[in-house]
Amino acid sequence: MTTNLAAQIDALKAQVESKPTTTVATVTPIVQAVVVAETPEQEIARLRAENAKLMAKRDSVSSQGLNMKVSEKGAVSIYGLGRFPVTLYREQWTRLLAPEMVKSIGEFIASKASKLSTKPTK
Q1: What span, in angstroms and rounded, lies between the C-alpha atoms of 92 and 78?
Q2: CA 91 to CA 101: how far, in whole Å?
Q3: At what angle do helices 2-18 and 24-35 cross, to 10 degrees?
Q4: Which residue would you say has higher pLDDT here, 108 or 25?
Q5: 35 and 52 share one domain
Q6: What is residue 89's predicted lDDT score, i.e. its pLDDT?
Q7: Residue 95, pLDDT score
Q8: Number of domains into which the chain is organized
């Protein structure tokens, strides 16, 4: 396998030398991919570290299981409340989240609590 690796590296070097427009930056990742052969233990360690990094990023972005995005049309979409996102434009969010509206919604929910159903959270 070592001779095959050496042959691949030599072939890449020959390609670089024959094409002066090829830069070292474009060949370096290819050479690194060919040269670096991970053992299964190294691959598992790398994947675990990558997984931990992704999970930490996910937890920091969506601490309540919700995440927000700006839609293509410029609206704010909140994902994670249900099957579909809740999407409103800035003016709509401003009206909905105004202190008097928040109070009114809270009072309405409290007064209709016996009629409202609940859905378990994820």
Answers
A1: 13
A2: 13
A3: 170
A4: 108
A5: yes
A6: 97
A7: 96
A8: 2
Whether residue 12 is found in the same domain as residue 57: yes
pTM over 0.85: no
For residue 73, what is the DSSP state? T
Domain contains 122? no
Whole domain around residue 8: which residue ranges? 2-61
Please tell me the distance from the alpha carbon of residue 76 to that of residue 88, in angstroms, as a whole number.
Answer: 6
Give the whole-number percent of the chain exceeding pLDDT 70: 73
pLDDT tens sequence across 72-121: 999 999 988 888 999 999 999 999 999 999 999 999 999 999 999 988 76
Q: Which two tokens stand for residue 79?
A: 């994902």
Q: Measured in whole angstroms, how far is the alpha carbon of residue 71 from the centre of its chain?
A: 16
12, 31 in Cβ contact below 8 A?
Answer: yes
Same domain? 43 vs 8? yes
CA angle, residues 64, 53, 75, in degrees to nearest 5: 45
